[in-house]
Amino acid sequence: MTDDQVERLIWKEIKRRGITYYDMTSLANHGVDPTPEAGFKGNMQRIRANMFKENFGSGRMKELLCVGEYNEWEDYPPLKVPFQDLFRFWWNRCVEKGLVVDDVLEDIFDYFTEQMRPPQEEQEQMEATMKFDQVLLFNGKAANLD
Question: Which whole number is the average pLDDT over 84-94?
Answer without folding.
Answer: 95
